[in-house]
Batch of 4 targets.
Target 1
Amino acid sequence: MKKQLLVFLFLIFVSNIVLSQGNFNIYKFNPRTQNIKQYLPPLGVLIDSAIKNNPRIKFWQADIEVGQSNIRSARRQWTRHIGISSDIRYGNYDNLSMGGTAGTTPVPIYYSKQETRYGVGMFMKYPFFDLLNRRSDIKLAEYEKLQATYNKQNEINNVREEVIIQFNNLLLKQKKLTIQTSYMETSNLNLMMAERKFKNGLIQLTEMARLTEINSRSKLAFEDAKTDFVVSFLILQEIVGFKF
């Protein structure tokens, strides 16, 4: 009895060593034996990072800035109808001046002269239709900005919800992995002991086949659980935009 107990403890030790060599080298912890929640950043940090790095939120932020630019443009629209004109002319110009001495009647004097003349002026041409629609154009630009603001907030809510769901999904995947690990360890031990008994003629071939099939199913379930955990882990990293 004591010898069988020692053999059983040895099998447990060997099984744990084998299982601890699983393909989990990409993590800073062992997800089968350590609680992942202790190694993850706080949920609030994950949410903030996901919001900061989300391209859809950046898109709507850019749309808000475009809307603000459109508002400024609509408010300055009237300045497009103001202009300055200037001209310069050279040629013969007829001139009229009044000549005469003090105490006499002025006499008009006509003469021609080649000279250069300059002209500068300001004008404003504001179509009546544009004047009537100025307020509407400003309102339209403001509503476009408001629409982009609502879309951005909606996207923030979606990202926050996505992170919360994926965070808890990862915790669930680890629990399933832990359960499947325990199930596979037990199955491995049962199979090791069954092989020893089968060699000693203590169990039938059918029992050995049954335990082998159970062990194969447990390994397959473990691989499925491990894959689900890895995918869930990488998806969360992708959502938040950094590795942890």
Target 2
Amino acid sequence: MFMYGYGGIGPRDAVRRSGAIPAADSTGGRSAPGRARTTAVPAGAQDRASRPSTGHGSDILENTSRTQCPRRRYRRPSEEELRMTENPSVPGPRRDMAIHNGWWPSGWEHVLPRQGFPLTMLIGTASQSGFTGSLDDLLQEIFDGDWHMIGGDLDGELTFSWPDGEWDYEDAPEGREASEAKRWKSFGAMLTAAGFPVPATVRDLSELYLAWGLAYREETPDGTRWTMPAVLPLPDDLLPLDAELTRRLDRARRTTYTGPLVNALITHLVDDLGEPQEVLTSLDRLAVATGRDADEIRLALADLVESGDARVRRGQEPADPERLEAHQRFRLAVEWEHFDGPRTHLSVRTDGV
């Protein structure tokens, strides 16, 4: 069995994979077929369990490195999040499931029902060069018409949570039913205010993708042709997001930039200094040690402090990393136990679960 694993993202967790998914091309506007940058997830990649590869020579797929930090331990995704079935009979590039590189930076996963992610994978795969046909055709070709991750087929009911998954009452003590109702009330009000219909099925959601410019569908002499823009439109440009969701997206986008900086700093502290409980240092010193500049290290420290992963002091008083001069010495203490808590993981699994 082939699995494409992914964990849920919170405002903080975007840091942990920010180096993994580079932004899409910045050319803007609608792309020509095959121009949208995607990450391929080739089936049967036994020797590439942690790195998607283009495979099969598809001209829109690019290798994307996975920047991960040492010591990081990740939450294992649920089987509901993971399950995909490989169909070895499918030839050519469509055995590679593809995801648009702009999916995570855009923030749509915070806004849409859970099927938004696999639907984007399905459309990204349909957008590969040489494929013509409907999404139903592709679903039939790869999954024999039944993909658990999307809820069966395109007429499956949209949900914000996995209906048969274990519920986390610590995060949502109100329970699944009440949580779903709350999410749908907010989502429905947001779409209605913007003049869009509230989708009930995955197929309905795919039509909204067309209305929003997340995807394009064209009838050609050879059949239906799907494409995606080089740069995905942002949800906050199309929908009236509430204050909480806006803050979450702002935080996630910020950490898309700061994630690689945090990783560089933690790598230095772990590999070069052996995970010190506290170190006397300066922005200049850390910049030299990590190959970054002082302003970038300042951002990384601010992120760690804000998330509770580190403390910065000058003398006995807490210090604001954003106000530090590059030459000023300070004491940096990383809360390793807190830092090593559950993180997001995005990878390909090839075991036989």
Target 3
Amino acid sequence: MQRVLIFISLLLSLSVSFAQRVDSPRSRSASDMGGYSALELNQKQVEKEAELSQLLERYQSARNPSREALKARMMTVIYELFDLSMMQKASEANSLRLTLQSLSSRTDYNKNQEILKLKKELEMVERQLEQRLNLRDKIVAKRLYDMTN
């Protein structure tokens, strides 16, 4: 659990750098998916998917020398998509944590059941984050392989 929390904070801090490099020089906080709102994050993913689709079309019609450069760019875009996806998952985990905190201050009769349910959900999301982090390179390589072969 501690490893996942460290990863989430690292991912959010890296996402700030990514956001500043890819989007604009304006400053972003790490409190909300690297500075992106959910709508901006979804838009960014749509843009990256479209870019990846265009790169794939160019890759399929390209000759051998330029294919490697396109393939390298495709891998970069897939990594960016992966990181955007991880930001969404990290945000989901953070949202669950905030909900748990607010539930602990309540005094109604369903509080314990709700807290247990949310704790299980949070543990599942954190496990998924850790698994995906551990498999990041394999996931990206497989997606690139599937697209190019």
Target 4
Amino acid sequence: MRAALRRQLDTQFKVRFNAALPMFNRLQMSKSEPSIWAACKTLRRLTFFIMIVPLEKEDSFALEIAWSENGPFPWDSIGMAPDLTLQRWRGRVGQLFVPPRDSIWELDPEYKRAGMRWLAAFERGKPAQEPSRDSVSNICQHLPSAINDVAKTIENHAIPYFFAIQKLCGSEVLA
């Protein structure tokens, strides 16, 4: 993701979710790591995480959620199926959907489609113009709807999952 777009994404998420999820505190792991923009600790060392993962080469991002019974972020737990009996878990929020699906928000979907058409033409040996990206200012117009969609996804999938873990562990903090 382009740096200017990443900054806008980060800023707009911060504004949207500081009021909506006051029990979560914003974290930044390092400049080279994706922004873990929210974490919530319970009384029993249970920690919930919500992470925006900007995709490196595309103007898109994924939403990951994670939890840990012992506090630190579960870097090594990605890829497993969600399981309430584990001591930690990390994955894309789409793994909680029935059926599971990928959860990537494309901010320039026409560029992605044009790239697929270009690749198909290239593979067939046909000349085609390589696609160009839209400007950051134009793409930023799509951010509010993407952020609203992510908010609904968190509300409908991540928070209920966190409640289930909380109940299983006998800890209370989310309200």
